[in-house]
Amino acid sequence: METMGLKDMRLFDYIFYRVYKFYQKRDTTPAIYASGVLSVIQFFLLLSILAIVRLFVDFEIPHRFFVIPIILVILGLNWYKYEKKLDFKKFEIIWSNEQQLKRVRRGWFIVVVLSIVILFPIVIGILK
Questions:
Q1: Per-domain residue ranges of the chain
Q2: For residues 75, 81, 82 and 88, what is the CA-based torsion angle, rounded to 10 degrees?
């Protein structure tokens, strides 16, 4: 089966799959780690969007206790989608035969995306 191009695949599913595969060799519960990493990426992505909007529209940043329910909702949604209703065989069918070069490039892409979405709101906050 031909692997899907990056633009054709569901990015969050792929990130979950790659983190799951990484922790599958190291732990008996890789889905917890994969959901956690994915939730961190999604939370910081939302924070990055908030930082971009704040560049154009000045508004008060919500109190840090307002963030906790958002994080819990993201974790809950990921838990439900990827752990409760996980059909890992579907991911294996799509990405198990991925070419080594594509796999390495996409792995670096995940690291770069994670770095950017974490650093971007921090840098914007420092500059603002």
A1: 11-127
A2: -170
Phi-psi region of 59 (alpha: psi -120 to 50; beta: other; left: phi over 0): beta
Helices and strands of the chain, counted as H and E runs: 5, 0
Q: How far is CA 89 from the centre of its chain?
A: 20
pTM score, two decimals? 0.80
Q: CA-based angle 25:115:121, to the nearest 5?
A: 140
Residues 76-124 have pLDDT tens digits of 999 888 888 777 888 888 888 889 999 999 989 888 988 998 898 888 8
Q: Which residues of 56-83 are buried (b: 16+ CB within 10 A; e: fewer)?
A: eeeeeeeeeeeeeeeeeebbeebbeebe
